[in-house]
Design a protein that fits this description.
By secondary structure, the protein is α/β, with parallel strands linked by helices. 33% of the residues lie in helices and 31% in strands.
Length: 288
């Protein structure tokens, strides 16, 4: 069996980048399975995502050594000022899911994960309400309720403790209806993924679908984005829309909105765990 790795790289655009990167993979015994690259002319920035396989047994020739590859590629990175990461597909990231009372996004994540469509582990679910404990029990996942009434600082201390205990790498806010502090989002920069009911920053606050219905909107959208210190202003990962009719009721708006939220959140998570997302100067580039 071969091991599969994903290499991500971003740097100022220069001639010879692809050749140097792929040559390093080849001389370390890697065989490229997929290569996607893009140059942003506006930023003069180069992005590259390469998935490759490499032998992990002596029967297949020289065993691929991540340590040796890292040392070799570090020299290439130094020549081109590359920021890079390498990911072993067999090592899955650990995601905590945060929820409040609404279950549709939580169910979608858990069902897609159970069907092997999300390449991660989900070791814990965290909420500020007890309502969805039964969902966690159904999927055999530990469920913790944190007390938001004792203040954000104390609440986030408890949250941080749970995340550390479960060795969490990334947090998903699956309709978690509490605002995170700037301190917390900076500590977890680009590691907290949120779903927003609309095209940011429209229809903030409570009852967003009723607000949309009263304005006579013709499209309902949702946005998966990274949470940061500015409410609903973090880098965008994925968006989608559904066309609605003026004859739709508020209740129908809500149901249509739930459907697009489910899809957008899962697609955003897929992009994240597939290492398609690059962030430069506060904006995302999704390279597939």
């Amino acid at each position: 069996m071969n091991s599969i790795y994903t290499l991500t790289a971003t740097c100022p655009d220069k001639s010879g980048l692809i050749s140097s990167i792929t040559s390093c993979i080849a001389r370390n015994g890697g065989n490229i399975l997929n290569l996607a690259q893009h140059t942003s002319v506006d930023l003069g920035a180069f992005f590259c995502r390469i998935q490759f396989e490499a032998p992990n047994t002596s029967e297949q020739g020289n065993i691929f050594s991540p340590a040796s590859f890292t040392a070799d590629f570090a020299e290439v990175a130094g020549q081109f000022d590359i920021k890079w990461n390498i990911y072993d597909k067999s090592v899955k990231q650990r995601m905590a899911v945060m929820v409040s009372k609404t279950s549709h996004c939580l169910y979608e994540i858990l069902l897609k994960h159970e069907d092997d469509q999300l390449d991660c582990e989900i070791p814990v679910i965290i909420s500020n309400h007890p309502d969805l404990c039964a969902v966690a029990t159904e999927f055999h996942i530990p469920y913790f309720q944190i007390d938001t009434k004792k203040g954000k600082e104390e609440c986030e201390k408890d949250l941080q403790s749970i995340l550390e205990d479960y060795k969490i790498d990334v947090v998903c806010m699956a309709r978690y209806m509490q605002i995170l502090t700037a301190e917390f989002t900076k500590k977890w920069e680009n590691k907290v993924i949120n779903i927003h009911h609309g095209f940011l920053p429209a229809f903030k606050g409570a009852r967003p679908y009723e607000q949309a219905w009263k304005k006579g909107v013709k499209l309902i959208g949702a946005t998966a984005h990274f949470a940061n210190e500015d409410l609903d202003q973090g880098p965008i990962i994925f968006q989608d829309v559904v066309r609605v009719k003026d004859t739709n009721s508020i209740k129908e708006f809500v149901e249509i909105g739930k459907d697009v939220e489910r899809k957008v959140l899962v697609e955003g998570l897929k992009h994240y765990f597939n290492h398609n997302v690059f962030i430069v100067e506060g904006r995302t580039f999704v390279i597939e």
